[in-house]
């Protein structure tokens, strides 16, 4: 599903690489935590997968696409296969919950019929049925993140990337979001989640890839966050 | 492509920034108004030129003694000159105007003015009025041939090329046209900058939307089209406004200004059809300029 081959990313303004010869392989349907201290390169890792940026060296494959090599006009095709959620939700404040989710389908040209059918389904999946007509500011943080997840998942992506999705949420709400991500993972979607949250990683016991100063320092199945970190 | 989506985005975009949209429409309208005025000036100048080139002649004024002696160009000196002219392939026709006829025309021309009373038939020269053949749309060659053949001949006083006289008028009209186009150009640059700026601001206010679009894999068409349609619509609105301005300008201003001279056939009238035709040109011009500006701006300044 994902394969990174000795990927190095040097930002122009920085002296040390944000990612340093990173090789990681993730299979279809896996749930992987990407952990590490601040500045270790987690967000960079995810940005490269999305082709928000290109690696300085190395190859990145997402399904059969060689991410660094695909021409600009094929980038949308890559992104349509990937869903993303972020710490700051990134909802459109002038659209309702339903419109926010529908927006993701409309802009990739899905028909109104599809939109009308699929949006309520996904809202139900994330536990927001009945809230389609609310505005984002009328929702709690956890609910807003559910909308973001619904939007990321509505096109049934093969891969879900989450960059600290619980970073703005309290522990209980975070736990609910994790249950939702787990449920999405059970549908066969690969989930890759960057996080700082010890308790979440420890309670889930999933594969952990740990970065430090841009290098992979640990890659362990059924792991915990780690002692002393 | 979901047109309903694009249209919805465009309407919210235009409504979000009404003052900016209005400024953009007005600036575009003014610059296109000037372009339109320039085009009409060109059209009028061209029509005037062809109007005159049909009428303009070279006049060969005869000396006093020949003028007095010959009332029908039958005597050797005059008929010799006439024969030379008539044999030239560049001459379409020659008419003899004797002193009496010259006096009549003079009276008509200056009717009611004191010079009319002062003139005597004897003080006006008889003339050979030479109509020229057009070559490549110009009577230049004919005029200089006639001058060459006539100047300095016995019986010839002066050769007057009427085109020299009218040239000044055309110079003036040409100047008007150039100034109009120069102003239109400056105004157009202002309009371009404003369109470019509006697209940038519009893209900035919509950066969250555009960010989400990019993230979920919308193609460039979807992310850019709303901005382009917005720009093109303002361009078209500006052009329509400019067209209205031209019509109003014609009815309220040009018509009364030119009424006298146009009626006398001094210059051809600016017709409503002309104005509408020019206005029709302005619409695609406005649309294309706004669209191209929008596209270039998105390419250069905005990551969409
Ligand atoms: N656009 C950029 N330009 C220059 N340097 C950058 C850029 N983005 C990130 N970096 C640098 O790259 C390194 C890795 O950053 P990254 O955002 O990937 O870290 P992170 O692991 O996501 O950190 P955090 O946990 O704080 O989100 C950092 O040293 C950062 O300063
Ligand atoms: Mg980060």
Describe the structure.
The complex is a heterodimer of chains A (229) and B (304). Chain A has 2 domains: 1-81 and 158-229, P-loop containing nucleotide triphosphate hydrolases (Rossmann fold); 92-156, no CATH class. In chain A, 32% of the residues lie in helices and 24% in strands. Chain A has helices spanning 42-49, 75-80, 97-106, 112-125, 141-153, 171-186, 198-204, and strands at residues 2-9, 19-26, 31-35, 57-62, 65-66, 82-86, 159-163, 190-194, 207-212, 215-220. In chain A, the strands form 2 sheets. A 6-stranded mixed β-sheet of chain A has the order 6-7-8-3-9-10, with helices on both faces. A 4-stranded antiparallel β-sheet of chain A has the order 2-1-4-5, with helices on one face. In chain A, β9 and β10 form a beta hairpin. The two termini of chain A are 29 Å apart. Chain B has 2 domains: 3-52 and 167-301, no CATH class; 64-154, Alpha-Beta Plaits, CATH 3.30.70. Helix content of chain B is 74%, strand content 8%. Chain B is built from 11 helices and 4 strands, in the order ααβααβααβαβαααα. A 4-stranded antiparallel β-sheet of chain B has the order 2-3-1-4. In chain B, α1 (3-16) packs across α10 (220-263), α2 (18-55) runs antiparallel to α8 (162-205) and α2 crosses α10. The complex binds adenosine-5'-triphosphate and magnesium ion.
């Amino acid at each position: 599903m994902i394969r990174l081959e000795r990927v190095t990313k040097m930002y122009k303004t920085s002296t040390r690489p944000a990612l340093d010869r990173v090789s990681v392989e993730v299979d279809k349907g896996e749930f992987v935590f990407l952990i590490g201290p601040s500045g270790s390169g987690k967000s960079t890792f995810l940005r490269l997968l999305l082709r928000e940026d290109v690696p300085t060296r190395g190859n990145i494959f997402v399904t059969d696409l060689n991410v660094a090599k695909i021409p600009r006009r094929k980038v949308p095709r890559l992104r349509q296969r990937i869903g993303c959620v972020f710490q700051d939700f990134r909802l459109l404040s002038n659209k309702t919950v339903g419109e926010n989710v529908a927006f993701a389908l409309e802009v990739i040209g899905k028909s109104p019929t599809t939109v009308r059918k699929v949006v309520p389904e996904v809202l139900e999946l994330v536990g927001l049925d009945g809230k389609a007509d609310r505005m984002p500011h009328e929702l709690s943080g956890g609910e807003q993140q559910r909308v973001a997840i619904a939007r990321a998942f509505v096109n049934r992506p093969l891969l879900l990337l989450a960059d600290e999705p619980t970073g703005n949420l309290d522990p209980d709400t975070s736990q609910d979001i994790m249950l939702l991500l787990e449920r999405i993972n059970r549908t066969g979607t690969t989930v890759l989640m960057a996080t700082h949250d010890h308790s979440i990683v420890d309670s889930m016991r999933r594969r952990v890839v740990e970065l430090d100063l841009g290098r992979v320092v640990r890659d362990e199945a059924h792991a915990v966050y780690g002692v002393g970190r | 492509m979901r047109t309903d989506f694009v249209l919805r985005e465009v309407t919210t975009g235009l409504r979000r920034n009404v003052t900016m949209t209005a400024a953009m429409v007005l600036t575009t309208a003014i610059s296109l108004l000037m372009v339109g005025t320039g085009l009409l000036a060109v059209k009028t100048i061209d029509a005037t030129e062809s109007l005159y080139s049909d009428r303009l002649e070279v006049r060969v004024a005869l000396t006093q003694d020949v003028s007095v002696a010959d009332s029908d160009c039958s005597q050797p000196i005059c008929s010799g000159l006439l024969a030379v002219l008539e044999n030239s392939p560049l001459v379409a026709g020659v008419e003899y105007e004797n002193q009496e006829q010259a006096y009549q025309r003079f009276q008509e021309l200056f009717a009611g003015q004191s010079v009319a009373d002062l003139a005597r038939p004897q003080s006006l020269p008889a003339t050979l009025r030479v109509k020229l053949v057009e070559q490549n749309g110009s009577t230049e060659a004919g005029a200089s041939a006639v001058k060459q053949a006539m100047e300095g001949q016995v019986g010839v006083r002066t050769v007057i090329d009427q085109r020299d006289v009218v040239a000044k008028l055309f110079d003036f009209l040409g100047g008007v046209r150039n100034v109009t186009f120069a102003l239109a150009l400056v105004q157009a640059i202002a309009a371009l900058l404003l369109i470019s700026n509006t697209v940038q601001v519009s893209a900035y206010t919509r950066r969250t939307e555009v960010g989400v679009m990019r993230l979920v894999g919308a193609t460039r068409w979807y992310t850019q089209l709303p901005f382009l349609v917005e720009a093109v619509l303002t361009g078209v609105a500006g052009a329509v406004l400019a067209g209205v301005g031209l019509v109003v300008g014609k009815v309220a201003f040009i018509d009364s200004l030119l009424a006298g001279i146009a009626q006398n056939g001094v210059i051809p009238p600016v017709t409503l059809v002309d104005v509408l035709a020019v206005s029709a040109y302005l619409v695609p011009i406005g649309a294309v300029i706004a669209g191209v500006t929008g596209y270039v701006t998105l390419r250069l300044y905005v990551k969409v």
